[in-house]
Amino acid sequence: MKILFVHHSYSAKSHSGEDVIVRKQINLMEKMGHEVVFFNPNSDNLFESKLQKLRTLFAWPLNLGLDLTKIIKKENPDVIFAHNLFPSISTKWIKSCNKPIFLWLHNYRNYCIASTFLRNGNHCQICIPKSSI
Fold first, then answer.
1. Is 93 in contact with 69 (CB distance < 8 Å)?
2. Are 38 and 27 spatial neighbours (Cβ–Cβ below 8 Å)?
3. Which residue of 42, 69, 70, 108 sits 20 to 30 Å from the alpha carbon of 118, by its own alpha carbon?
């Protein structure tokens, strides 16, 4: 089976718990004989200039991030494992994708930019209906 793993790492220099889990899953899938394609951008250069900061600021809420449609067509995976998409990977491709997609929810970032469901110290779910997923 061919598996496409999609995961935006916060930094190539330091690894988060999400990065560790993704690597363990990839190693396990390869050990089981599956072919793995890993799409893994990171945030290292997203904030180097004012223009990059501005683009990053607007990309997530406007769903203008990286589109995986070309990668999916080129690689033709049997299944897609999506972990962290924030902040550079768009979710537009999800609705038109005809492949099974497993979305690992490591945090609430896809539904709440603060990832906490809190606003001014109170429970908040205002953004959930506006989510791009």
1. yes
2. no
3. 42
Using the predicted structure, report yes or no on whether residue 66 has a pLDDT greater than 60.
yes
User: Please, which pLDDT band fits residue 132 given cuts at 50, 70 and 90?
Assistant: low
Distance from C-alpha of 83 to C-alpha of 3, rounded to nearest angstrom:
13
Does residue 112 surpass a pLDDT of 70? Answer: yes
If DSSP codes are grouped into helix, strand and coil, which group holds residue 117?
coil
Nearest residue to 106 (alpha-carbon basis) of 29, 35, 23, 22: 22
CA atoms within 13 A on the CB side of 24: 7
CA separation, residue 45 to residues 10, 12, 39, 50 (Å)? 10, 10, 16, 11
**Contact present, 125 and 113 (Cβ < 8 Å):** no
pTM over 0.85: no
pLDDT for residue 78 is more than 60: yes
